[in-house]
Fold each of these.
Amino acid sequence: MGEEYGTESGDGEYLWVLDPIDGTRAFLTGRPLFGTLIGLMHRGKPVLGIIDQPVTGERWIGVSGEATRFTSPMGGMAACRPCPSLATAELSCTSPEIFDEAGMARFERVRKAARRVTWGGDCYAYGLVALGLVDAVVEGTLKPWDWAALVPVIEGAGGRMTDWLGQPLTLESKGEVLAVGDAALLPEITALLA
Amino acid sequence: MGEEYGTESGDGEYLWVLDPIDGTRAFLTGRPLFGTLIGLMHRGKPVLGIIDQPVTGERWIGVSGEATRFTSPMGGMAACRPCPSLATAELSCTSPEIFDEAGMARFERVRKAARRVTWGGDCYAYGLVALGLVDAVVEGTLKPWDWAALVPVIEGAGGRMTDWLGQPLTLESKGEVLAVGDAALLPEITALLA
């Protein structure tokens, strides 16, 4: 399954979920925040994910049940940071245009309660959660190829990635996605998004 | 003059205008879009500007009356691209929070008329105008150290950088800044911002 491919065969036990260029707008306008996403789902659950950023040379590899591996010419390692309160959280979101109207009103409640929001980022923002530099990402209207590879990366770094109700993401999810570096943020954010 | 320094002596013929880290929020959250800005003004007019992005290794050097020089491990050269109509323009802006309320309403008119807006970027977005990847940046509430270094970079690549009225930026400007890669965009954008 992929943005450029559609779904070739969705009935196997394993499903590759690919996005050759996540962040098309960032790519087209020259920002090094786009990435190549390679995800693998097993019976509908993401079990492997790779984020590759070719300009900075950074790569995140997440495997279900293992610690996320991060390689970069600048060093560093994957590990989410503690952040139990939204009032101290760095929030990230690609664009206000990523929400439908109802979604935007719900996102605004989270934004106002957060310490700060940084706009832009696409898949890179989720990589930053896995590096302990961003505490939460809230986005809407995502497709499986936008998020499947991100789940093992975030969760293998100690974070959580769910829908806006706090439920696991599945191929049937609406595309409302929430990533947190500290699971303690989940109840506060899902209550504001409800 | 600088964000961290205040103004040491504003009455000389030449004035250095420095911002060690433009894009503090991008820097703090790990996005390679911040930059070190070094600007020099002569009798209130920007005559030299440097944008340095240490993660990607990109550097833009603009000198009044000369072609902007760009160095990068990935190659490339500075040259704005033609884009005579806002309807086909890639617009960029760091954040909706960069405007005051009246400024936001005026910006919205430009955003709706543009082909697309990409959020985030700080000084890097102006570098992208100079590379012909972005066509316009519209921002408010900037300080001289946010824009002084950018003017020679943009203009040496064939673009224009003005206030929202299309007038040259000076130390007395309100901080409402407009950069375009193609001067033909100026009348359309300043009319929408008026």
Amino acid sequence: MNTIAITHENGVATVTINNPPVNVLTIDLINEINAFVLSLEDDRETKIVVFKSLHETFFLAHLDLHVINGTQGGQAASIEFNHMITNIKKMKQLSIAVVDGVARGGGDEFVMACDLAYATENAAFAQPEIHVNIPTGGQGAVQYARRMGKNKALQALLLGNDFSAQQAEALNIITQYVPKAELDSFLAMILSVVSTLEVRDIVMYKEIIHASIIDENAGAEMELRYFLERAKENKTQAIIDAFIKHGGQTEREAKDIQGIFVDTAKELSK
Amino acid sequence: MNTIAITHENGVATVTINNPPVNVLTIDLINEINAFVLSLEDDRETKIVVFKSLHETFFLAHLDLHVINGTQGGQAASIEFNHMITNIKKMKQLSIAVVDGVARGGGDEFVMACDLAYATENAAFAQPEIHVNIPTGGQGAVQYARRMGKNKALQALLLGNDFSAQQAEALNIITQYVPKAELDSFLAMILSVVSTLEVRDIVMYKEIIHASIIDENAGAEMELRYFLERAKENKTQAIIDAFIKHGGQTEREAKDIQGIFVDTAKELSK
Amino acid sequence: MNTIAITHENGVATVTINNPPVNVLTIDLINEINAFVLSLEDDRETKIVVFKSLHETFFLAHLDLHVINGTQGGQAASIEFNHMITNIKKMKQLSIAVVDGVARGGGDEFVMACDLAYATENAAFAQPEIHVNIPTGGQGAVQYARRMGKNKALQALLLGNDFSAQQAEALNIITQYVPKAELDSFLAMILSVVSTLEVRDIVMYKEIIHASIIDENAGAEMELRYFLERAKENKTQAIIDAFIKHGGQTEREAKDIQGIFVDTAKELSK
């Protein structure tokens, strides 16, 4: 790996992007991300993949302008970039973009391909492609349309202007704005909660959400089927028994449901 | 009725939930809500159903944990709970949840099944099911996906964290945050306006909204058909004549359209 | 033209609505707007159409109440009004509503038919039709459902209450609230950026957005096809060469991508 570095710890893979000078999505970077993402299909250990950048001002710049042309190589590279977006969207693991810098064009599309995205006051998001005579090529326009509605999407795509993390949260480009000073503890909280889950839990909710957005009734049927199956599991009974023992279905739930969950986990780990 | 109390006044049915100790959705409560909701199908008097709680801290807790299992009785009760959600969604009357306490799991799903939901600073909303090894079972994940988009929904479902009423309004879990001190007058205003309408008006708009969300063109066709039919009614002509007589289509509309409606109503009630 | 005045300048057509006393959507005004909008189909000069009002307090009032009836003429006029909404939605040019006054009923529907809508502190938006015994007839309910979700839409349609520009922005009725004092400079900025584009750019993004909202995958396929075609154009290569020459793919992008675009434009205009 020349453009990304990967570390593994407790089911969390951290991918640090480092493609000087400004983290452009070159074909090398695209290929390395694709290879890693596809390797996760058969990975039984990794639950969460966190994407970060080593660069001080860029999270991830756009697709390498040198491949945006009519040559066979250029068109093939653009298609590989597009596949990278769909590969990330199809991951069974929970993907998280941690954005502390600029993410325009393909960088913005990369962020939106991830399941969750958190960004700081140093982040900037934009899809300025039209000013280079091209549309977005990694679902940028598709995602803008679906996330912010047709009017705000059209304005953003024609202007190509930057959005701050707060604006990006309001427009559903990212999940949440997190001040840089709180980023580490916020991310640690997210990872600690999700790490208690199984990969199949993440997959189940991704499937229900995907189905529900296309068809409300189909989503509702899938959800109920999963619910009835999961209700039968011994694991469910064990958790519920411990949960009730420690104050489930009593007043303690009102103000301290987290405490009940903590005591339940302790009980079960005995 | 052991777990709910129902009062009727001027076309408004008020259902007060009272299932000690903490308003858990037991099979008794589910059955009583289902029986009442289904009885409304042939009700020609009731226009609005308001759901409230007698409990100080809980609006409505989750589905009774004692039925979440693989027994025949447990699975049947879970399915009844799921039917309760779809029954509420299918009501012809306007359903309103007034939430002044905790609504997690099935309680949160109950709130989202209602047409409108108002909540105070005492409210808390969450879908923490995954931490008991199950998904939501009453369309919680379905509604989160459709109301807040896939990223924010996935975060909320994996974390299972509480949302305040203000957060719930921003995420479309509820219609509006209303401070407790203003709740009675706010609700009185809503009821006084909607009480001037007919049940068929509520049904018409629910149908158009439902159709429009699935297919924009189908919704537009339905809306125009209703418009042309309704335009022909004598009632429409009578209102329009009185409306114009009292300043419709003049400058008075700009700053005092409510006053024109008041004068129109007076004129018609002569 | 008796009810609208049209001026053309640098690819921007400005339509000023002036139908005293309060800019009601009379059949004359509807016919003149329809004739103008349909004339734009073969117009190769106009990129942007800005709709403004000459009236001090009304942007555009509702459909003329005198045509809302069961007569043949009334029903035909109502259908013409409905066609006006679909005609505006189908324009290839970028349509912009600049709202500095009241826009209720058909006026609100006109605003939502436009691609972009900006409104000041003097604006008010509402769909109060149900209080005249009719539903919306120009996709008002359809648009409310799709833009603000079923709960907030149902509340707004049953109450018929006014929304301020800030509220309308949050509910996606308009694109953005702009203080009256900043309106001229804001609009000049929008027009100056969009004027650098071609009509086919606007059409392309409208098509991708439209397809994406109906079907995410279909939108993604259309976007990629456009991307690969556009990448082959000489115009694209010329812009990219100049963009790279002036600091594209370097640190300059981080804080001054607008400067690179300015220098790129200068280079290309030599």
